[in-house]
Amino acid sequence: MAHWFDLGDVAVVPLIEDDRLLIEPGEFFPGLEPDLAGWYAQEPWFDRAAGKLVFVIQSFLVCSADEVLVVDACVGAGKDRRRAEFDQLPDRWMQQFLATGLREVDAVVFTHLHTDHVGAVTVQREPVFPEVPHFVVEEEFRYWSSAAGGAAMRRTGDYLADSVLPIEQAGQLSFVAPDAVVGKHAELVPAAGHTPGNVCVRVRGSAGSVLLAGDTMHHGVQLRHPELSTRYCVAPEQAAEVRSRILAEAGDSVLLPTHFPAPSAGRVRRGRTGYGFEFASDLLRTGPFRYGEWLA
Ligand SMILES: [Zn+2]
């Protein structure tokens, strides 16, 4: 079921590449043995039959009357990737983008440069959105271009070469501060830890706001155990501090973490045994998003 989020004069539209990626708990969170009585070990968070965590791979359009941003870009189509679920995918991302009626965007924003956040901006090493700035924190790009970043990329395949360097070589990579304003309704929020230049994106509309929380949290189990960072976090302790801070400060605001199961957006609730997550129905609209109809 297609859906989007209504913030009044701004719409946040997910482009979902994979709505049910299953991963072994211990592969993602070293040593984790889920408490099967926990809320995070039930649907939609956990596939009981497979004994695996459920993740979504998605990116977001931030649409207003005079501006369209893309935040992150999934795995992308036709890429050589080590993980079977990411290898040589069909072009679900572009099909969904075109279905909105949009043909161009004003800017791309990367929360960080992991393989599941950058792929759809190139096809055959050519930028999909020529001339358009692609914002990233400079430290993030420097890290993945370094020897340490290159070593970390051995598990995934060299996605920097086919998905990020073509953007840089076209002069479209634009370095920004981790708290930069990146659009009329969007600003970055520093969140280094998962990766060195990791950020969230705060989106404000006339009828609500959401924090695109990126990969500061990947799964509900981290609300029960905020100290739990992933195997793929570059600085796990720093990632845990950032996550704890976001959860503590969330209040009644809506978080939209990239990999939470659909519809992914919700509010943090504090309970006796830690935090819970209540999916936000107030901002949620079901059905496909069409930009022209939304404007009219
Ligand atoms: Zn991710």
Please give the number of β-strands: 18
Number of alpha- plus pi-helical segments = 8
Query: What gross morphology would you assign?
Result: globular
What is the H/E string?
Answer: EEHEEEHEEEEHHHEEEEEHHEEEEH
Number of domains: 1
Q: Can you tell me the CATH superfamily?
A: Ribonuclease Z/Hydroxyacylglutathione hydrolase-like
N→C terminal distance: 23 Å
Please summarize the sheet with the most strands.
9 strands, mixed
* Helix coverage percent: 10-25%
Low-confidence stretches: none
CATH fold-level name: Metallo-beta-lactamase, Chain A
What Rg do the Cα atoms give? 18 Å
- Under the CATH scheme, which class? Alpha Beta
Bound molecules: zinc ion
Per CATH, the architecture is 4-Layer Sandwich
The assigned structural class equals alpha+beta
Mean pLDDT, nearest integer?
A: 96
Strand content: 25-35%
Protein name: Glyoxylase, beta-lactamase superfamily II
Pfam families: Lactamase_B (PF00753)
GO molecular function: hydrolase activity; metal ion binding
Keywords: Hydrolase, Metal-binding, Zinc
Task: Describe this entry's structure for a reader.
It comes from Amycolatopsis rubida. One of its GO terms (molecular function) is hydrolase activity. Residues 56-259 form the Metallo-beta-lactamase domain. InterPro entries: MBL_superfamily_lactonases, Metallo-B-lactamas, RibonucZ/Hydroxyglut_hydro. The chain has 296 residues and is of the alpha+beta class. The protein has one domain (3-295): 4-Layer Sandwich (Metallo-beta-lactamase, Chain A). Helix content is 20%, strand content 31%. It has eight helices and 18 strands. The chain has helices at residues 25-28, 92-99, 138-145, 147-152, 159-169, 221-224, 236-249, 291-295; strands at residues 3-6, 11-23, 46-47, 52-64, 67-71, 107-109, 122-123, 126-127, 134-137, 173-176, 181-183, 186-190, 199-205, 208-214, 254-257, 266-271, 274-279, 284-286. The strands form four sheets. Strands 1, 2, 3, 4, 5, 6, 9, 10 and 18 form a nine-stranded mixed beta sheet that branches. Strands 11-12-13-14-15 form a five-stranded mixed beta sheet, with no helix packed on it. Strand 1 (3-6) and strand 2 (11-23) form a beta hairpin. The protein is globular and about 50 Å long. The relative contact order is 0.18. The model has no long low-confidence stretch (mean pLDDT 96). Zinc ion (ZN) is lined by residues 114, 116-117, 215, 258-259.
